[in-house]
């Protein structure tokens, strides 16, 4: 094993202990805080050229076990990869075909895991998207309520308006908008489990007269301009780069002239669309978000503009998402025994790595997340947006 490393083990200075199937453990630095146990001897040669994708896959498949704080596991795994291989900027994405069935299957794979599982680590409203920390000291629940309010304020929702929510999830935003801003909401999703729970909660809160939720593909939205505003949170990542134009056209057609459209989604760091570094992107594509493709902010704003909308405001929430993911990861780690009763062991391993790994990636700037507010101008070019952002913070 020692011969497989390109540098002397004593020179690595990484607080990692490696336990082999036979023989004494190898310590790559003083006072190890993470232990990697090799269960599959055929993996040994690959460990000399590791990537986060390789290590993640090996953990999910049970070829290795990892012991220690999950955050430290991710940090030290990245340090090991950078020390032995260098800093890989990520692979170029291969565009995949996104038809209706492919998209429905991908959404079901990710979201139809178990409502109870998600409920263990999400906030009470099951808001599965980046929270908004107005001061940085908020609890997860407080920050998620602030995010919902921030979205509604950006949309300048008024009593009696009709709001379209594309990718409505468990309905947290639909209920908040109907309850706090007195609007009628039409939400769509491709997750059956999310839809069932979202409808239950709408009924429980007595909001059925204000909210209508459907299992529907965005491509089936009518271009009749019947909505005053539209919002889409965590959706365009699933659309596929080749379909972004059609997606933006669907939003444009659904909203009246003068209306506002707000997209909130994860964006690539580089304009060439490379995935996250050191194999992290490949791991996410294989195990977490199959067929997911991240557009760069420039790509997304170009598609919005080409569809006829005018971008009026852009906000990065990268560090907000790092903190959100850290909250989610910590909450899941605190309930691992309960989580193990809700999902198979392989699924739990995937999610442990995914939440902690994404928190690390957002913290280090490997990916970003943006809220992009656009307007559908009137025929004469006029808009209905205020002169300043002052109203957002009043």
Automatic annotation (TrEMBL):
Residues 12-75 form the DUF7884 domain. The keyword Metal-binding does not apply. The active site is at residue 358. One of its GO terms (biological process) is lipid biosynthetic process. GO terms for molecular function: methyltransferase activity. Keywords: Lipid metabolism, Methyltransferase, S-adenosyl-L-methionine, Transferase. Transmembrane segments: none annotated. Pfam families: CMAS, DUF7884. Belongs to the CFA/CMAS family. This is Cyclopropane-fatty-acyl-phospholipid synthase. It comes from Pseudomonas matsuisoli.
């Amino acid at each position: 094993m020692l011969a497989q490393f390109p540098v002397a083990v004593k020179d690595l200075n990484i607080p990692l202990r490696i336990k082999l199937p036979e023989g004494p453990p190898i310590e790559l630095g003083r006072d190890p805080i993470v232990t990697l146990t090799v269960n599959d001897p055929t993996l040994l040669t690959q460990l000399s050229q590791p990537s986060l994708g390789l290590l993640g896959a090996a953990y999910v498949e049970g070829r290795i076990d990892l012991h220690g704080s999950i955050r430290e596991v991710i940090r030290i795994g990245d340090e090991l990869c950078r020390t032995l291989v260098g800093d890989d900027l990520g692979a170029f994405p291969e565009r995949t075909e996104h038809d209706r069935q492919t998209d429905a299957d991908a959404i079901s794979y990710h979201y139809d895991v178990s409502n109870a599982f998600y409920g263990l680590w999400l906030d009470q409203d099951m808001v599965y998207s980046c929270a908004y920390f107005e001061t940085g000291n908020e609890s997860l629940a407080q920050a998620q309520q602030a995010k919902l309010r921030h979205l509604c304020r950006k949309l300048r929702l008024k009593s009696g308006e009709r709001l379209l929510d594309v990718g409505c999830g468990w309905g947290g935003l639909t209920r908040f908008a109907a309850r706090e801003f007195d609007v009628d909401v039409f939400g769509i999703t491709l997750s059956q489990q999310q839809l069932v729970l979202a409808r239950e909660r709408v009924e429980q809160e007595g909001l059925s007269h204000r909210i209508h939720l459907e299992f529907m593909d965005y491509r089936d939205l009518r271009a009749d301009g019947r909505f005053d505003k539209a919002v889409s949170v965590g959706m365009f990542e699933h659309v596929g780069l080749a379909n972004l134009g059609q997606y933006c056209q669907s939003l444009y057609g659904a909203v009246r002239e003068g209306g506002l459209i707000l997209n909130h989604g994860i964006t690539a760091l580089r304009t060439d669309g490379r995935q996250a570094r050191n194999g992290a992107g490949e791991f996410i594509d294989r195990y977490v978000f199959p067929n997911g493709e991240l557009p760069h902010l420039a790509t997304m704003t170009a598609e919005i503009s080409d569809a006829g909308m005018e971008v009026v405001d852009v906000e990065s929430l990268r560090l907000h998402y790092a903190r959100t993911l850290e909250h989610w990861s910590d909450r899941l780690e605190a309930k691992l025994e309960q989580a193990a009763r809700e999902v198979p062991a392989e699924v739990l391993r995937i999610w442990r790595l995914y939440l902690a790994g994404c928190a690390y990636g957002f913290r280090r700037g490997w990916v970003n997340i943006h809220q992009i507010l656009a307007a559908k101008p009137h025929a004469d070019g006029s808009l209905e947006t205020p002169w300043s952002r002052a109203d957002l913070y009043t």
